[in-house]
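A quick word before the example. In earlier lectures we treated sequence and structure as two separate objects. From today on, think of them as two lines of the same record. Here is Cadherin-10 written that way.
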Amino acid sequence: MRTCLLTMIWACLSLYVNSTSISRKTVLEMGGEEDRDGTKGGKILKRFKRGWMWNQFFLQEEYTGSDKQYIGKLQSDMDKGDGTLKYILTGDGAGDIFTIDENNGDLHANKRLDREEKAFYTLRATVVNKNTGLKLEPETEFIVKLHDINDNEPKFAKELYIASAPERSNIGTSVTQVTATDADDSMYGNSAKLRYSISQGHPYFSVDPNTGIIRTALGPGEMDREKREHYQVVIEAKDMAGQRGGLTGTTTVNITLTDVNDNPPRFSQSIYQFSVPESIKTGIPVGRINAVDKDLGKNAEMYYSVVSGDGLDMFDVITDKDSQEGIITVLKPLDYEKTRSYTLEIQVQNTQTLDTRFLGYLPTKDMATVRIGIEDVDEPPLFEKASYMMEVKEDAAVGTAVGSVRAMDPDGYNSPVRYSIDRRTDLDRLFNVHSGNGSIFIIRPLDREEAAWHNISVIATEFNKPLQTSWVPVYVRLLDVNDNAPKFASFYETFVCEKTKAGQKIQTVSAVDADDPVGGHKFFFSLAMEGAYRGNFTVKDNGDNTAGVLTRRSSYSQLHKSIYLVPVVITDGDFPMQSSTGTLTVRVCTCDREGNMELCNAEAQTSSAGLSTGALVAILLCVIILLMIIVLFAALKRQKKKEPLIISKEDVRDNVVSYNDEGGGEEDTQAFDIGALRNPEAIEESKQRRDIIPSGTLYPPIRRTAIPSRDNADVRDFINQRVQDNDSNPTAPPYDSLATYAYEGTSSVAESLSSLESASSEGDQDYNYLSDWGPRFRKLADMYGAEDSDRES
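And the structure line, produced from the sequence above:
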């Protein structure tokens, strides 16, 4: 009501201003100050009239006439109508948008104006004398305002709004707010006063006409997302306060109902049936069950559980997070012979809290029955235990039973079972098993010190179906028996000073034993019962499995005896008692006053000054390096080529050849090898000179065989013949050279063993004479004699 009253008052004021006369005049005569009697200071003050005065003009926007739009008339009291005055206009748009008749002061607008572009113009006017150009009036400023008309429709901030609201919301729940604006003048009239209304979206939503807030119009029972999720609402904004003739603008609002957890899950069927073989492994899925929830996202998440049934301990159900299905899995091994079917009662419910306001008496959970049938499978034998552990003493005799295993056919046929040992687990073949009753026994002696545990596998196989087999691990532990004597923990060697005192400890010894008694090791040390050493040294048992060797004299002499071998008897404390004797080497040395060794005898010094491992390694490396250098030097010397006597091999004429090789005479043992004469029967190959070009007419080497004789004349004749051949050989070098005469000789008792030079064939040989040469040749005679027998047969 207050808004309407203010609007009416504003309209009246506007009409009053428009009706105010443009020619309103206030005349003021300017002069001196006037006293009460009209005089002041001897001067007469006169009032001058001001020719014009106005505040503002008004002009309607968007003028559509063809003529210029008349705004008003400017007139001065000094204008007598004689045409001597001139009106001048300056300011915003003067001369372009606004013009004035310089003769009579009429003011016009030349263009169509838009208030939304510019709401008012500031102008200035004055009057001058046409003849003199002098201003007759002071310049006065005035304003031309544009009257607004309703020429702009409301516009929304968005063409499309996206909003959402929870389903099952109460009536009047705020959804979103839309806002529109109008470019018209909000201070004049109702052109910019908007009213909102809903043109599409009834009866689900409503809009506040003044604020544009959209609210739900129906109750929770009607706004159900599962029935309808998306709504399109069209909002209209109208100016002129919604009155007839006002301009309108529209926008679209897409509203989506968001989900709330108002629907419990429900099984798609009440009974499920599955069948699985009894051999199925634990953890393997049996089947899937499905429940449906109309909600979305987290509100549709559910979990399954087994609540009852005879298969409560045999099966489990888990939830597939992706498909929200229940997966039934096996918890324990199944046995067709024991139970052939199971029944489960499975429950499903939401993981999130359920909104029960709209459920009424409907349950929040759902139940389904699952029946699982077990199928019979031909199974291998089944052992009574998953593994066996047995114990036996290490000194048990061969054939002693260690233990037994037992397996049976789990099927209804009850087929007999045969036992065997997997030899891959018993490579040493220490054990065996009775094929009928599964008794495991020893077939070879055992030793705990070699292996304290033996892990073998026993195989059970059905007699009627050999492919049906199963394995079971058997762990055999060997119990210790005191069958090893204790011995020194290491090699002990010490020294004693020539000048010492009786009862001084010179060495502490300890012992080790391969056995492992239950109560731990207990060793006793003592000197051997016999020997001259008893008067020189004694042994003191420390009671902690160690003993000290003490001197019994105050002086020892290297000259009299430089080394003492002290036998120490070591005895264990187990049953049967075992003992051994260890020898302690004691050397007599010269010591200083503090008892430090200075010098021992040569034998002791050599032994004590033994090289360390590092020194031995260094010496070995030096030897290896030296050998490598020698081998490398020999290889380089062998590869070194001799320089020819003549540099050029193409032309041997008119060349002076220098032979700087002098013979060594009879004492030159490097020029020839006399050992070559020991095989004179070898064929001497032709040797050519290196200082001349060989020709094709060289004499071939002549092989001569000397007739052997008992006085070695054949060797002498052979050598003479070879010397003569070499002397007459034109290709022989002029300097002393080595000639090899290879001749074996004759009168060998065994003659030649070569089959190539044998006069008779291999089959004609009689090898019986080899038996007379001794036991080393008897085996050879048997081998060749056997071959002859085979050949004859």
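Notice the following. The radius of gyration is 68 Å. We will return to this example when we discuss secondary structure assignment.
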